[in-house]
Amino acid sequence: MADATSETGLERRGGFDTLAPTFQTRASKLRPARAHLELVERTALVDALLRSPASLLVVSAPAGYGKSTLLAQLADAAPVPASWLQLDATDNDQVVFLTYLTAALSRVAPVDPTVADLLQVQTPPIDELILPRLGEALDAAQPFLLVLDDAHLLQSEACWGHLALLLGQLPPGARLALGTRSEVPLPIDRLRAEGRLAEARISDLRLTRTEADELLTLHGAEADDEALDGLLELTEGWATGLYLALLAGDGRPIAEWLPHLRGDLHVIAGYLTGEVLERQPAELQEFLLRTSILDQLCPSLCSAVTGNADAPEHLARLARENLFVTALDDRDEWYRYHHLFAELLAAQLERRAPDEAPCLHARAATWYDQRGDAGRAVRHWVAAGDIATAAWPAFVAVQEHVDRGQVESARRLLDAFTDAELSRHLALTMAAGWFYGTVIGHPSKGERWRHAACSVAVGDDCMPDDLGSWRSWQLGLRAFLAPDGVAGMLKDAESSVACVRPSSAHAVESQRVLGVALYLSGSPRRAALAFRKLLRDSADPVTRSYGLAFLSLIAADQGCRDEARELDRQALELTPGMALDLSPGMYMAMPMLLAHARVVAAGIDPDWRRQVESCEHYLANMVPQIPWRIILICAVLGEICLQRAELDDADRWATQAEAQLRTDGNAGMLHGRVQRLRQALEELRMADPLTAAERRVLDLLPTQLSAPQIAARLFVSGNTVKTHMSHLYAKLGVTTRTGAVDRARELGLLRPPERG
Asked: Between 405 and 674, where is the model more confident?
């Protein structure tokens, strides 16, 4: 991994599929936010939740009811080890979610350290290895409490599926606690009926009279019984409303401002936020409004957005005076606004300065871009309406997300653009073609954007940052996708190698695809030279194993079994998971899977069937479904089954390859390879194999053509056709044309009749 992670994301994308750069988790997500104000202890509610035997605890209420405070107090009071995960929108990518979930679980359960490593590869084996190992950790764990706060921000069906699986595997005495503003997509009714659910909702979270009085006392305010009852009645025990009221009162007697509180909670919050803002100095008001566009705050970012050198002092004052900021680290460098407070500030900004937000977003985008955070920069540029500037960082960010296995993050970023915007900007067109067409194989967008990326005019334009030309990148993509078949693939690959600079990030990728194109074109010696050059030029483990695997396939094609086995061993040492832990979307794994299957099948290893099944599963889920890849996999698996005398399976693979060839005819040497597979099958199934001429006559027997018409179609005499038919009947052991067709279908020499 050292070589792979030492390069930058885009430099490593000389190949379309590589090991992921390390994903750095934020420690602040693994602990409750630090409170800067005195909080009321919810002792009775905490005790009630702890007494419950339920394995799932759900704390559900709108913003500002103290859900996070209650959960933090619950974690502190729990008699078992507790761990915390603060969810946010980025966790809707299942790789990000599982990375943080693994980190949180590792604090309370014996999670295998390899799980964290597996989550760093480009296409993590989630179902095959990661979830089973997390399940093993739960089986071995002692009782614990795992808190997931802001669960309403988790909207990914896949992530909730993983969470439901975790819930079902909790060991006795262990608990999962969720803080949420909305209903969670778990079988709540069933869990409630089974006694496995404990809940705290609005009615439970409302401050009692005693707790409200305690809150006032903690913040130096006093209220007689009548004023306290009036405050509780209007705020309905809403903790944030009470605190906002205290801020708005600014030390005045409650009786002076209490009559002004009217309306529902959101109206109260808006009114009180306005009151809070109006009581701040003008420069602090401006700071609050302008920074409301940010989901996280630090001094230099705030200075860049507001254009105010005093921003660090303003941020420090907000923290000091408890104006709804939450620290995200231990150094008091990063903060965020309370969610509700940020929403209301943004509404105030829109009301007071409706034209200012785009400029503020543009400043934030520039700040993030200068610090290498392309993903956040793109989101702010899109919010600013500056799509032209966002295009290149989006191209970079999409590939960086995919490099880390965060495919959903890449999808959400690209989906933020309209189709017109994707078409209008070259970098976005290329990103869409690569992502929708090759990474996820989107059913509707895939073909459209593949075609757009392969055909858009690029001229001699260079990529920004001196990372090569768009033409070389496009040619590499065209060669990979092979829209014009193997002949076009070779032409594109040779052109890509010719126009790419040797030092370019795309040089290795161009060389890799050239090797494949030469192999498919029937030039194994030149292909081997290309792959050996690839090994010399690339230090990336996945790229090297790809080259070694193709060299192993070439050696096996030539009957050099010992060489094929040694090359397969070298590839396995570099990337063992690519041949053993199946990841269908990881298209760089294909030659590894095939080469290893051939090597295993050539020996006495009984595991060959499992490896063939892995290849079959890979084929069924392969993205993208490129014709030559389908045909090659079918041909190799057919040859393996033929070698192991599994003739029915070999026939099935040959038939599938032939069907693909009829649809996509330009497949280079694969035509002859599939024909040889079919011929070998016939020879094994028949004591007296058919000649090529007899085979041509057999292919026409299921038709309505008469013998003279068959002769005319094949440009031979009628007597010749009669002779071939006589020989066919004898070899097939039949006496009629219908019998010959039926017997040939039984032997796999003819396709079964089409239905319907």
From this structure: 674
Comparing 6 with 86, the larger pLDDT belongs to 86
Name the 3-class secondary structure at 444: coil
Q: Check pLDDT > 80 for residue 171.
A: yes
Instruction: Write out the two tokens for 702.
Output: 């299921």
Give the integer Cα–Cα distance in Å for 630 and 57: 48
**Domain span at 536:** 508-686
Residue 710 domain-assigned (yes or no): yes
Measure the N-to-C terminal CA separation of the chain; round to a whole number of Å.
Answer: 54
Length of the chain: 756
Which token pair is 73? 């107090």
Domain-ending residue, one of 258, 278, 298 = 278
Would you state the pLDDT for residue 15? 34
**Nearest partner of 659 among 637, 627, 618, 690, judged by Cα:** 627
Query: Same domain, yes or no, for 308 and 342?
Result: yes
Domain match, 313 and 174 both: no
Q: Count the domains in the chain.
A: 5
Q: Are 435 and 398 in contact (CB under 8 A)?
A: yes
Same domain, 682 and 694: no
Last residue of a domain, one of 477, 500, 523: 500
Q: Are residues 241 and 287 in the same domain?
A: no
β-sheet with 56-60: strand ranges across: 82-86, 145-149, 175-180, 56-60, 197-200
Highest mean pLDDT among 228-242, 247-261, 428-442, 453-467: 428-442
| Pairwise CA distance, residues 689 & 274, whole Å | 91
Query: Quick one: what percent of the chain has pLDDT higher than 90?
Result: 45
Residue 678 belongs to domain with CATH number? 1.25.40.10
Before 624, cis peptide (omega within 30)? Answer: yes
The CA distance from 87 to 497, in Å, is 45
**pLDDT at position 135:** 94
Band (13; pLDDT cuts 50, 70, 90): very low
